[in-house]
Amino acid sequence: MSGAIDHPSPNHGDRRGMAPDLVLIHYTAMQTAQAALERLCDPAFEVSAHYLIGEDGRLWRLVDETRRAWHAGAGAWAGATDVNSRSLGVELANPGDAPFPLPQMRALETLLDAMAARWRIPPERVIGHACMAPERKLDPGPRFDWRALARGGRAIWLDPPTPARDGRGVAEPGATQAAARRAGYPALDTGLWDAPTLALAAAFRARFRPWEREAPAPLTLAGLAHLEAISRRWPATTATCLRV
């Protein structure tokens, strides 16, 4: 990609016959881009991503897009568990609690446009790390501007629907889990507000309802209506996920 700084990481492998049909956005949770660059290229840590974007918009290419970078870890999206083999990983230099500067976001937008064109990745297949691993990850967190990406057709966003009733009550956990699975999240089918389902609710709020608290708590009825509306508009299915 034009303007990218090549800084090859040794941490990658074969895509196991798959092609990228998903983009994962991460934050580095480190203090500087240089520290993240060193970590992502250190064979001792066995982690990498395809790209790293600094706060100033500098773009490093670490792993060729045809190769399997090691960025997703355990988790799933739309029923697919080997997320590394079918995804492109983009790390944003950010300690985890800071805004994402405009130069960094502009560089991300340019990169997303190029990747989407090369691999025909639709905006609903651009997700955060927390979306596919809500029990383990928070990134890119509630300070990431998904709405800005969606305005340019690079991700999805849906404003909350007007609730038909008081939306402050607690949503039914089984209905929440079912709607989350339809939207692509790795939701269980326990019918309980257990720890995994609370983590999923936190990930959904950070992604689509960042004005609400991120700490583990059940979705409200308004939150469930929002999730159900998203799952109807962009249903994630195994068929769309298994394009190779």
TrEMBL record:
It catalyses: Hydrolyzes the link between N-acetylmuramoyl residues and L-amino acid residues in certain cell-wall glycopeptides. SMART domains: Ami_2. GO terms for cellular component: outer membrane. One of its GO terms (molecular function) is N-acetylmuramoyl-L-alanine amidase activity. Residues 10-141 form the N-acetylmuramoyl-L-alanine amidase domain. The keyword DNA damage does not apply. It holds the Pfam family Amidase_2. It comes from the Bacteria. Its EC number is 3.5.1.28. Keywords: Cell wall biogenesis/degradation, Hydrolase. The keyword Hydrolase applies. One of its GO terms (biological process) is cell wall organization. This is N-acetylmuramoyl-L-alanine amidase.
